[in-house]
């Protein structure tokens, strides 16, 4: 074997070693994220809350006359108090509505069973449905001696179908309920994390400057962190504002239509607004299904009205208003959204689904502000348009002056 072949073999071995190390590190990170999810989920939520509080503080400081008179720490306290009050109020609303939903559960279950029976009776009248059951279903006592469907067998199939539908709905409700309970139980921890993050915000820049060892490097690192923070705050603030707008429109629509628990569904629509694709579909379908099975005044007409109006409200905000405010530079590729939804949902459950897009967008923003990692940001983006490096933009503007 000559020297060229030996060098080529070494290059291949190094390439395989890098792939092996990358896969090993990815598996290790995934394992840590899964095992430490009880600690990391409140921490990540607190980080995003701190961004919201800083944004609110900035807005308070911009209030004419009053904002300039307020010391910065007072503006922080007011912002923190507003966010904390909102979270506590939301928790109380969810708790009150959850109690009412549990109390009304049997009525909705009876209504759903009646609807399923009507659907089953309608399907029974369709010849191709009975033919399919005869050909594909092998259930005990399903068929009569002449090969047709027996009444007992059909009733058994209908009961099984009802149980599967109710089990599916109960599973979704249980998953959402567990996530809400976990959030409520950790609310104090989240607020504590948030407060200490705000306290340590200024000290973090000084520590990074000490690590860098140079005043110029300290200023550069601090400015980069501020640039990243500005973009992340922009995304989270706009996404939260759009979620509140959608939830408000939905609440008005459901109240006018007489949908039960309109406040609870509006809060759920707001939370699901952070979940890509599935969140929008679930936020529209769940209240619509409730309208269908609602004991008082429910039915297909109310279902179609609720479905249509909620869809119009959601699409108006997400497809018309939000892109104009957000811009293309903060939009993710649909494939990346689905992958992040799958990965974070697997690791952190429903909480991971809520946080997957903010986390991925934050990662894209961080990568976009460093020359070496901009290709990663381009791959994560929707159409290759990413935020410019703010440091370079400032330098070009300074040279132009």
UniProtKB/TrEMBL annotation:
Q: Carries keyword DNA damage?
A: no
Coarse class of the protein's main subcellular location: membrane
**Membrane protein topology class:** Multi-pass membrane protein
Stretches that traverse the bilayer? 20-53, 73-94, 241-259, 265-293, 300-321, 341-366
Entry superkingdom: Bacteria
Q: Name one Pfam family in it.
A: AI-2E_transport
UniProt GO cellular component terms:
plasma membrane
UniProt-annotated location(s): Cell membrane
Q: Which PANTHER family match?
A: PERMEASE PERM-RELATED, TRANSMEMBRANE PROTEIN
| The family this protein is said to belong to | Belongs to the autoinducer-2 exporter (AI-2E) (TC 2.A.86) family.
Protein name stated in the entry = AI-2E family transporter
Organism name = Aquisalinus luteolus
